[in-house]
Specification:
Layout (H helix, E strand, L loop, with lengths): L7 E3 L1 H9 L5 E4 L5 H13 L4 E2 L4 H8 L5 E4 L2 H11 L1
Parallel strand pairs: 2-3
Antiparallel strand pairs: 1-4, 2-4
């Protein structure tokens, strides 16, 4: 639903720009992504105090949005809140 609403950003560089612009509300990173990608995203989300979840594999994230991605940022506060509550 968030993808159809245009409220997600995918891909490493776009997600990092979204985090730095403080538009990202929740970030998903694949637990099987490259260690340097995970570290880079973890460092950015920690610094900007944005919640990050790494409970899905890259195949699961890719299937969820319909394209091959390892990192996704949700930019809508409502979607992010609901997704985060469902993951806990």
């Amino acid at each position: 639903m968030a993808k159809k609403a245009g409220r997600i950003v995918t891909g490493e560089e776009l997600v990092i720009k979204s985090i730095q612009a403080e538009r990202a509300r929740l970030v998903f990173v694949a637990h099987d992504a490259a260690p340097n990608l995970v570290k880079r995203i973890t460092d950015k989300t920690t610094y900007y105090e944005i919640p990050m979840l790494d409970i899905f594999s890259s195949a699961e994230l890719s299937h969820a949005i319909g394209s091959d991605r390892k990192v996704i940022a949700v930019q809508d506060k409502g979607f992010a809140k609901k997704m985060e509550s469902l993951m806990k």
